[in-house]
Amino acid sequence: MKEPRVAIVGATGMVGQEMRKVVEQRDFPLESLKLLASERSRGQSFDFRGETIDVEVLDEGSFNDVNIALFSAGASISKKFAPIAAGAGAVVIDNSSAFRMDPAVPLVVPEVNAGEARKHIGIIANPNCSTIQLVVVLDPLHREFTIRRVVISTYQSVSGTGKEAVEELRQQIRDIEEGRRVAVDVYPHQIAYNVLPHIDVFLDNDYTKEEMKMVDETRKIMGEPDLPVTATAVRVPVFVGHSESVNIQFAKPVEPAEAREVLSAAPGVEIIDDPAKNLYPLATDCEGKDPSYVGRIRKDDSAENALNLWIVSDNLRKGAALNAVQIAELLLG
Amino acid sequence: MKEPRVAIVGATGMVGQEMRKVVEQRDFPLESLKLLASERSRGQSFDFRGETIDVEVLDEGSFNDVNIALFSAGASISKKFAPIAAGAGAVVIDNSSAFRMDPAVPLVVPEVNAGEARKHIGIIANPNCSTIQLVVVLDPLHREFTIRRVVISTYQSVSGTGKEAVEELRQQIRDIEEGRRVAVDVYPHQIAYNVLPHIDVFLDNDYTKEEMKMVDETRKIMGEPDLPVTATAVRVPVFVGHSESVNIQFAKPVEPAEAREVLSAAPGVEIIDDPAKNLYPLATDCEGKDPSYVGRIRKDDSAENALNLWIVSDNLRKGAALNAVQIAELLLG
Fold it and tell me: In this complex, do B299 and A155 lie within 8 Å of one another by their Cβ atoms?
């Protein structure tokens, strides 16, 4: 493919809109862009490279003239329409969880396992947001110092849930300000001025699906099916940007300075780590930016060869849209 | 002491006011209550058991008729006035960090090491808020299963900083709502819609003082000077209630059900752990309540004999005022 015909499915959602922006910003070479969404979005249109593109309603015929289809409309839409798109000859890059753990579907973070993308049979899965920003940091450290165990606690923004969650946080803040009763709809509890140790549904092992995505997807992307990883996923009242407190034990000795050296050469990673100047990665600083930011890199004396660090990235961008477009770029040329 | 004469130093601060309320609510037997604060608070008064008590300005003569002095006015006030109060014959219960790591000063959480209180020579230290809610959970588990290592990430509310931080969060939220530039004063960065991996000052080892308090104080209270503990302390835009994601490795095998059994019998601890009903401890639910709440108790398969859990408590109450009054109760009788 030199100049593919591209479609975005779920084009009016937060990630879908970010996909359109990233395609534009990166000068992604394409012959045409089709914006697909549900009946509800009929009549909407968006500017793209100086033209106005009308949103089309997704149906089974939508993919007949499409080479690359970027899906971000939820797992049920992907389950139904990704095989249809692939059957029509498009390569699907799917941001939902529908196919991520399917052994026949590559799960790709280009900085980590770009080679996997070539093995696709019509569908490539885009990992979970909190996993992507994590593995671009873990993988280079693993190659140098061999990771033995990872313990993660997340601080995830409401934009990871979608537009309705962003609006719920805004509305709850206004309700509290004006003394009204707080309405709870998108989340099971008030998110304003609160933190919820609950993202996605609970599974039989009492972990949430989000927590197990971080475990399972990290292992698959890094090609380490038994890597010991455990996670606690927490929603915080932040609009954009996921933060992660990450504790890593290594097989080999590692000093913070050595980790910094490795990470400063790692693609997709930027270090912000100057405590004396109060500099560390922040959710409010990462919006609209590409890297996975890492800081607070310090030796953990509670275990042999261990480090603590703090990872922050724009969950709509590297955590979703940017990574999907980077996968699409692997298909070019 | 049967009915001591009690003074609260820093009586107009958030913790000082909570101390007055806790003394009242617990029917703490006292002959008199003196409210002390700085010159700035002159003229304020508070109701206590149906009477109005005027705030007095703290000076070197304030403690001549006092048996128990509850200090919560910051480390520099404690350093100056706690020895004066102790010299005048009062027992000081100090909520600041001034004396916590002094080997001659007991650091007490009554549920864990009440016996230490008896060893005081005039001053007893009240631990850091995020430490107290942690050790009431760790200690019973340690006695049963022998803790080998603890990894903590915190989600700490702005009331832990004080009134000015609560006001800064409120003001930043209003500024953003009304499109004004956000002013940053109490914290080095915007706290509204953000999370800051920075509490208290940075030390030479690149940990914050708050993080090292959690390590050092936990060891001292539990009487385990070498217990492997590491922490990442994070400020979140929550008004009251500190939450903690805690990963614990044990020497002995432990099932979540066994941990629940031990914790359900532990004083000061309450379990909220029913994922099927979306029940887990929440900051917004703990305000004004006494227990350290624990939930999300689950097996961590990334290490032998490991658990993850989620601990939440009112940082002004068990994290400060309540624990101080409980220490005072140990001195009665």
Answer: no
Residue A162 touches partner B, C-beta closer than 8 Å:
no
Regarding whether A273 and A157 lie in a shared domain, the answer is yes
Same domain, A106 and A20: yes
Residue A179 touches partner B, C-beta closer than 8 Å: no
Check whether B333 has a pLDDT greater than 80. no
The C-alpha atoms of residue B5 and residue B3 are separated, in whole angstroms, by 7
**Measured between alpha carbons, how far is B83 from B80 in angstroms, rounded to an integer?**
7
pLDDT tens digit string along B247-267?
Answer: 999 999 999 999 999 999 999
Closest CA to A205 of B290, B323, B298, B34: B298
Chain B contact for A48 (CB, 8 A cutoff)? no
Which of A 201-220 lie inside 8 A of B, CB atoms? 202, 205-207
Whether B253 and B303 map to the same domain: the answer is yes
Query: Residue A151 and residue B149: Cβ atoms within 8 Å?
Result: no
Q: How far apart are CA A133 and CA A313, in angstroms?
A: 6
Q: 């614990």: which residue's tokens?
A: B248
Q: Which residues of A touch B301 (CB under 8 A)?
A: 228, 230
| Residue contact A232–B202, C-beta within 8 A | no
Chain B residue with the nearest C-alpha to that of A198: B278
Q: Are residues A65 and A174 in the same domain?
A: no
Range of the domain at B41: 5-127+320-330
A286 among known catalytic residues: no
Decide: B13 and B320 in contact? Cβ < 8 Å: no
Give the A:B interface size as CB pairs under 8 Å: 155
pLDDT tens-place string over residues A120-140: 999 999 999 999 999 999 999
- For A248-254, what is the mean pLDDT? 98
List, in sequence order, the alpha helices (H) in chain B. 14-25, 75-87, 110-117, 129-145, 163-177, 209-222, 256-264, 283-286, 322-330
Place of tokens 């050790």: B135
Using the beta-carbon criterion (under 8 Å), do A297 and B206 form an inter-chain contact?
yes
| Residues of chain A neighbouring B165 (CB-CB closer than 8 A) | none
Residues B108 and B150 in one domain: no
| pLDDT band per the 50, 70, 90 thresholds, residue B2 | confident
Q: Which residues of A touch B281 (CB under 8 A)?
A: 197
Residue in chain B lying closest to A247 (CA) = B151
Here the ipTM equals: 0.97
If asked whether residues A308 and A169 sit together in one domain, one would say yes
The DSSP line for A65-125 is T-SEEEE-S-HHHHHHHHHHHHHTTPEEEE-SSSSTT-TTS-B--HHHHHHHHTT-SSEEE
Residue A142 appears among annotated catalytic residues = no
Q: Has residue A333 got a pLDDT over 80?
A: no
Q: Are A56 and A46 in contact (CB under 8 A)?
A: no
Catalytic residue (choose from A120, A129, A142, A286):
A129
For residue A1, what pLDDT band results from cuts at 50, 70 and 90? confident
pLDDT in tens, A178-223: 999 999 999 999 999 999 999 999 999 999 999 999 999 999 999 9
- CATH number of the domain bearing residue A142: 3.30.360.10
Q: Do residues B121 and B204 share a domain?
A: no
CATH number of the domain bearing residue A104: 3.40.50.720
The answer on B120 and B43 residing in a single domain is: yes
Euclidean distance between CA atoms A72 and A322, whole angstroms: 12
A239 at interface of B, judged by CB pairs closer than 8 A: yes
Of all residues in chain A, the one with the smallest CA distance to B285 is A194
Query: For the whole prediction, is pTM greater than 0.90?
Result: yes
**Number of structural domains found in chain B:** 2
